[in-house]
C-alpha cells in the first residue's frame, strides 16, 4: 500500500453561484503520485480543527501554496491592504493541523504559503510585501512572462546550510555547491522566525527560503519556492519529493507495526 498523503485545500468560490469549493492544484496530486509514490488525499479547508480525525489516517502532509495570505491576526500583524486574498477557512484547519502533525511525528512538507503557515503556526510572523522593504528583492509572480515559464523557470539562487536537513535530501552536486536555483511566486516572507524553526536557505536579499522544525521526530521541512512545478525536469525538486515520500512510507510502516513508531517530540 502506498502512504496516504494529505494535501491542504484552499476554499474558493466556484461557478455562477460562487459556491465555496475546496481546491488544490493538480501539480501536488502529480508530485504525490509521482516522486513521492503516495496516494493523495485532499484535505478540506473546513474552517475548523480536524487534526484529531485526520492525522490517525495520514502518513504525510503537504501544506500547499496559495494566492491567499495567512490572516495577519494569527501573528498580530497589521491588516492586509484592501483586496489581498485571505482564506480564514483554510487557516482554521491548517494551523492546528500543522501543530498536531509535528507533535505526532507525521512527515510534513510545507510549500510557499504552507511554509508561511508553518512559521505562523509555531509562533512566527510574516512581512506582507517584502518587495516594499528596503534592500529586498521582488519575489512575486512576474506579470510580463508566460505562466509556464514563471512556474518552471529559475528566478534566483538560494544559499543552503550545508549540514542541514534540506542539504541532506537534495542532489549531491547541489549539496556540494551549497546552492540551488529556484522559482519564486510569493509576496510575503518570514519576518520573525518561529522559536522552533531553523533557517536552512536564504535568497540573496536575506529572505528565508527554507526551514526545518528543530527536534521534529519526522521529516518536517518548509520551502518558500515551488518544487511541485518542475520535478519532472529538475533533479533537486524531484529529490525533495522522493525524500518526503520515503519518510511517509516509513511512517506508514510504523503505523502498521512494521517499524519504530515516531514519538511526539514534546
Ligand atoms: N500568498 C502568499 C503565498 C504565495 C504562494 O503560495 N503562491 C503560490 C501561487 C501558486 C500559483 O500562482 O501557481 C504570498 O504571496 O506570499
TrEMBL record:
<comment type="pathway">
    <text>Amine and polyamine degradation; putrescine degradation; 4-aminobutanoate from putrescine: step 4/4.</text>
</comment>
<dbReference type="GO" id="GO:0016740">
    <property type="term" value="F:transferase activity"/>
</dbReference>
<keyword id="KW-0315">Glutamine amidotransferase</keyword>
<protein>
    <recommendedName>
        <fullName>gamma-glutamyl-gamma-aminobutyrate hydrolase</fullName>
        <ecNumber>3.5.1.94</ecNumber>
    </recommendedName>
</protein>
<dbReference type="GO" id="GO:0005829">
    <property type="term" value="C:cytosol"/>
</dbReference>
<dbReference type="Pfam" id="PF07722">
    <property type="entry name" value="Peptidase_C26"/>
</dbReference>
<keyword id="KW-0808">Transferase</keyword>
<dbReference type="InterPro" id="IPR044668">
    <property type="entry name" value="PuuD-like"/>
</dbReference>
<dbReference type="InterPro" id="IPR011697">
    <property type="entry name" value="Peptidase_C26"/>
</dbReference>
<comment type="similarity">
    <text>Belongs to the peptidase C26 family.</text>
</comment>
<dbReference type="InterPro" id="IPR029062">
    <property type="entry name" value="Class_I_gatase-like"/>
</dbReference>
<dbReference type="GO" id="GO:0033969">
    <property type="term" value="F:gamma-glutamyl-gamma-aminobutyrate hydrolase activity"/>
</dbReference>
<comment type="function">
    <text>Involved in the breakdown of putrescine via hydrolysis of the gamma-glutamyl linkage of gamma-glutamyl-gamma-aminobutyrate.</text>
</comment>
<dbReference type="GO" id="GO:0006598">
    <property type="term" value="P:polyamine catabolic process"/>
</dbReference>
Amino acid at each position: 500500500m502506498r502512504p496516504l498523503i494529505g494535501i491542504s485545500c484552499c476554499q474558493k468560490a466556484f461557478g455562477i453561484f460562487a459556491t465555496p469549493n475546496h481546491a488544490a492544484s493538480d501539480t501536488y496530486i502529480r508530485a504525490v503520485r509521482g516522486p513521492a509514490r503516495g496516494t493523495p488525499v485532499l484535505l478540506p479547508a473546513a474552517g475548523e480543527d480536524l487534526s484529531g480525525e485526520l492525522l490517525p489516517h495520514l502518513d504525510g502532509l503537504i501544506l500547499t501554496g496559495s494566492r491567499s495570505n495567512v490572516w495577519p491576526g494569527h501573528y498580530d500583524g497589521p491588516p492586509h491592504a484592501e483586496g489581498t486574498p485571505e482564506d480564514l477557512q483554510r487557516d482554521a484547519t491548517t494551523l492546528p493541523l500543522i501543530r498536531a502533525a509535528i507533535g505526532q511525528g507525521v512527515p510534513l512538507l510545507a510549500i510557499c504559503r504552507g511554509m508561511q503557515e508553518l512559521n505562523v503556526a509555531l509562533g512566527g510572523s510574516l512581512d506582507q510585501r517584502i518587495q516594499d522593504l528596503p534592500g529586498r528583492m521582488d519575489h512575486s509572480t512576474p506579470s510580463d512572462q508566460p505562466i509556464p515559464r514563471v512556474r518552471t523557470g529559475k528566478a534566483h539562487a538560494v544559499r543552503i546550510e550545508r549540514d542541514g536537513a534540506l542539504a541532506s535530501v537534495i542532489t549531491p552536486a547541489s549539496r556540494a555547491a551549497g546552492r540551488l536555483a529556484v522559482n519564486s511566486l510569493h509576496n510575503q516572507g518570514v519576518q520573525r522566525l518561529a522559536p522552533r524553526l531553523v533557517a536552512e536557505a536564504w535568497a540573496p536579499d536575506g529572505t528565508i527560503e527554507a526551514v526545518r522544525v528543530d527536534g521534529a521526530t519526522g521529516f518536517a521541512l518548509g520551502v518558500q519556492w515551488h518544487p511541485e512545478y518542475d520535478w519532472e525536469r529538475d533533479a533537486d525538486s524531484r529529490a525533495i519529493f522522493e525524500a518526503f515520500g520515503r519518510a511517509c512510507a516509513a511512517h506508514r510502516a510504523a503505523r502498521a507495526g512494521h517499524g519504530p513508531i515516531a514519538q511526539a517530540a514534546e
